[in-house]
UniProtKB/TrEMBL annotation:
Residues that coordinate or bind (6S)-NADPHX: 59-63, 137-143, 166, 264, 318, 364, 431
Residue span(s) of domain YjeF N-terminal: 10-223
Protein name (database record): Bifunctional NAD(P)H-hydrate repair enzyme
Species for this entry: Streptomyces cremeus
Gene3D superfamilies in the cross-refs: 3.40.1190.20, YjeF N-terminal domain
């Protein structure tokens, strides 16, 4: 499992480590790991490579300078552009000078400091093979300052490999928010622990490939964010035993579809039948369409309360009429309920919080914004915060769909899904996901695990079905079996 910690936690751990280690040891560890990662990105052709360091103030700049010194000692031509010459890390600056590195003390400076040669910062960047972004560290807030913008743009346009030091300058390490223009990196080398912003959009798209350098921090507290991997999901997936029958494996009830949206019922049931439960009961007016695609489904054309015993309910995809009444019935049951799509608009927070059995909400950003009473842009900019707030308001587990799917419950780490793909932004894919998670709930998974594992399999299925090409929701449903097998084989 990949885990991420907030800046305050990392800072505390760094202070504790520095108190017990020789002076400068922590920075040397970080710089050595950074230099090694840069060498890998240069395909080990360090000698003769042209490396430019964009150096801000403080320890982030120090890490960058020490790494640059290491690359210079291996034969790279290293030039440091200092954005805050009066506040540059003195030890790192001395190390780079001693290693033969060159110094530019301003964005347009071609003569100041001890630089040798006729190139200013922009000319040096235009000729670079690799650029290290050490402008702002993990404590930065807001977008890049005006003086840094021309350099960040020149680095982006240079064609060089851009490596962010700890995280791309201009993104928020804790929230993933991008409040203005920031550095877009090809790779990020982060120290001691992943930061939440590296795992969630919009910041994640600016980080590139992320590499963690272990510098020996004792973080001492649970993570703030988790990202499951294959092995984690494999441990969660239900496996029948010799005594299992369809009822012991769990029955999921699906209330979905309408005359206007019959496909939603078919897609939701398609996710449910492949989600590990032993049987699916469908309640609604689209029974003929459902049976045509899934003859194994138990169809009931009355109200949910008369459908028979289930171990979970899924309600909402494609419902057009009677949403409020059907929602009231399923919330009155004593089993987990997943609420999606049209049913989200009929939710009463008090009715959800008053249940003994758990509730899972699966909104997209627009639906989450309506539930919170904020603008959609606010939800998309601060996805972790929006999911946490919804979970607290409704006393539920919340899966916030989007470019990074986020799953939050009332307490503990928020989970982010690493398998998503933009091709999932297609009609009906959320219906498949709702059915899949509902089936995992019926099979006995806890709400946080069911939502997290469902999102993980859903993303894998889309990748497998599309292989870089467009997919339909039906393709995703059909590929769930292959995704499940690929995960189970790891376990």
């Amino acid at each position: 499992m990949r885990t991420a910690h907030r800046v305050e936690t990392v800072r505390t751990a760094e202070r504790e480590a520095m108190a017990r280690l020789p002076e400068g040891a922590l920075m040397r560890r970080a710089a050595a790991g950074l230099a090694a990662a840069c060498a890998d990105l240069l395909d080990r052709r360090v000698y003769g490579a042209r490396v430019v360091l964009l150096v801000g103030s403080g320890d982030n700049g120090g890490d960058t300078l020490y790494a640059g010194a290491g690359l210079a000692r291996r034969g790279a031509g290293v030039t440091a552009v200092l954005l805050a010459p009066g506040r540059t890390h003195p030890g790192g600056l001395a190390a780079l000078r001693a290693a033969g590195g060159r110094i530019l003390t301003g964005p347009h400076d071609g003569t100041a400091g001890d630089v040798a040669g006729r190139y200013g910062a922009h000319e040096v960047l235009a000729r670079a093979d690799l650029v290290l972004d050490g402008i702002v560290g993990i404590g930065g807030r807001g977008g890049l300052r005006a003086e840094a913008l021309p350099l960040a743009r020149a680095a982006r346009d240079s064609g060089a490999v851009v490596v962010a030091v700890d995280l791309p300058s201009g993104v928020d390490a804790d929230t993933g928010e991008v409040a203005g223009e920031c550095v877009r990196a090809d790779a990020t080398v982060t120290f001691g622990a992943y930061k939440p912003g590296l795992l969630v959009d919009p910041a994640r798209t600016y980080a590139g490939v992320v590499r963690l350098v272990d510098i020996g921090l004792d973080l001492g507290v649970p993570a703030d964010v988790e990202a499951l991997q294959h092995a984690d999901v494999a441990r969660l997936l239900p496996v029948p035993d010799a005594e299992s029958d369809k009822y012991r494996r769990g029955v999921v009830g699906v209330v979905a579809g309408s005359a206007k949206y019959p496909g939603a019922a078919v897609l939701c049931v398609g996710g449910a039948v492949r989600g590990g439960a032993g049987a699916v009961r469908y309640v609604g007016g689209g029974g003929d369409a459902v049976l045509a695609r899934h003859p194994e489904v138990l169809v009931h054309d009355g109200k949910p309360g008369g459908a028979g015993r289930v171990q979970s309910w899924v309600i909402g995809p494609g419902l057009d009429d009677g949403v409020a009444g059907a929602l009231e019935e399923v919330l009155a049951s004593d089993v987990p309920v997943l609420v999606d799509a049209d049913a989200l608009g009929a939710l009463d927070p008090d009715a959800v919080r008053g249940r003994d059995a758990p509730v899972v909400l699966t909104p997209h950003a627009g639906e989450a914004a309506r539930l919170l009473g904020v603008a959609r842009e606010e939800v998309e900019a601060r996805r972790l915060d929006a999911a946490r707030r919804l979970a607290v308001r409704y006393g539920a587990t919340v899966l916030l769909k989007g470019s990074t799917t986020v799953v939050a419950s009332g307490g503990g780490p928020v989970r982010v899904n690493p398998t998503g793909t933009p091709w999932l932004a297609t009609a009906g894919s959320g219906d498949v996901l709702a059915g899949l998670i509902g089936s995992l709930l019926a099979a006995g998974l806890a709400p946080l695990d069911a939502a997290s594992a469902g999102a993980y399999l859903h993303g894998l299925a889309a990748r497998s079905a599309g292989r870089g090409a467009p997919v339909t929701a039906g393709d995703v449903a059909e590929a769930l079996g292959a995704a499940w097998r690929s995960v189970a084989e790891v376990g």
